[in-house]
Amino acid sequence: MGALMGRRDCALVALLAMALVLAWSAVRVDFLNGGNWTALFCTGETVRLPPELDRATYRAPLGGYDGQYYRLLAHDPLLTKNYAQYVDAPQFRFRRCLVPMLAWVLALGQQRWIDSAYIVVEMLFIALGAYWCARLLVRRGRSPFWGLLFVAAAGTLASLDRMLLDGPLTALFAGFWLYCEEERWTRVWLLAALAGLTRETGLLLPAALVAGRLYRRDWRGATTFASSAIPSLAWYGFLAARLPAGRTLAEVGLPVWNLLQRLLIFRTYADPIGQTVLRTLDFLAVAGLMVCLILAALWLPKRPFGPVPVCVALYAGLALLLGPPVMIDPFAFGRVISPLLLWIMIEAVGSKKWAALAPPLLVSLNVSLVFVRPAITIVQALLRR
Questions:
Q1: CB–CB of 151/126 below 8 Å?
Q2: At 353, is the secondary structure helix, strand, or coil?
Q3: In this predicted model, what pLDDT tens digit does every residue of 182-227 receive, in sequence order?
Q4: Which residues face 334 on adjacent strands?
Q5: Do residues 17 and 151 touch, judged by C-beta distance below 8 A?
Q6: pTM for the whole thing?
Q7: How many CA atoms lie within 13 A of 339 on its CB side?
Q8: What does the buried/exposed string (b/e) look like for 169-195 if buried means 16 or more CB atoms within 10 Å of the residue's CB?
Q9: Integer angstrom CA distances of residue 183 from 119, 188, 218, 309, 355
Q10: CA separation (Å) from 373 to 32, 102, 379?
Q11: Are 72 and 44 within 8 A, CB to CB?
Q12: Rounded to an integer, what is the distance from CA 151 to the centroid of its chain?
């Protein structure tokens, strides 16, 4: 009975997390975007779109962001409409098919429902991430309400603002972690397979599973878990046969050097007064990332060897490899390594090392700056009423 009530409480936390995010999105869309929910995809004003989508699409200033391309895949998941011609890097973008495909399935393939279904899928992943985080923390003797930390993860914040895929991947990592602890290996295999279809960095989950089995000389287990990467590789092959390669988007650079160099780069902002504050927050985000890497190096050797520590170590290694296009912006690097940051947060709360919450939250704080201007505008609109 106690376990059942614990799961019920975790489910309530999940619903609360989804309700909070949905409420914010509804208020934002109503006040700032004229009730047009396609604004959440952040489609640039100069980006070409298929005529049937262009008419109803809310346009954001400048070039938009990645969600505008994943939306196209949701509308053309079988590549029959040639929507890839509107994408900057077709193979690269369309590899990340899980959320767009789920949106298409949820909408029953009906074009008029797909945008709404995509947003629903994002919200469901927020609920799942909060639920799995709450379960992890309850196992550590903490209140399930700590599961709301998932909403504060860098990948979650970025995704709810622009319909990205990093929040769903971070949620899958949380589920992967939970079911590894519970040794529910069928679920672990499934989540690893889904992670690889969410974005390429999700393949680190199957890699960690294989490494864990090889360490134990469990060749059969290693083969079984290696098969969780097959759906991703098959999809990549399908895309390679159907789409032009297009330009590549390099995201890696010299190990360690780019991270150290980034501490000495101070970005330029339009407002000279706000520039000092923004540069300070930018520096703190990079410093927070470096402290997270140090914490991972200190904590991981103390954990029993297994898929989750290996996975976290792989994400830490990825952080050391990130190149200038990603490292220049905390919004970018924070979401790419969000599973690592979430692991630090949950371990900090689970062991009551409260000071260790600060480094990952400094990264999240910088990511959350995208909400400041909309929030101010909404408050001003409310005061004028």
A1: yes
A2: coil
A3: 999 999 999 999 999 999 999 999 999 999 999 999 999 999 999 9
A4: none
A5: yes
A6: 0.95
A7: 31
A8: bbbbbbbbbbbbeeeeeeebbbbbbbb
A9: 32, 8, 15, 15, 31
A10: 11, 31, 10
A11: no
A12: 11
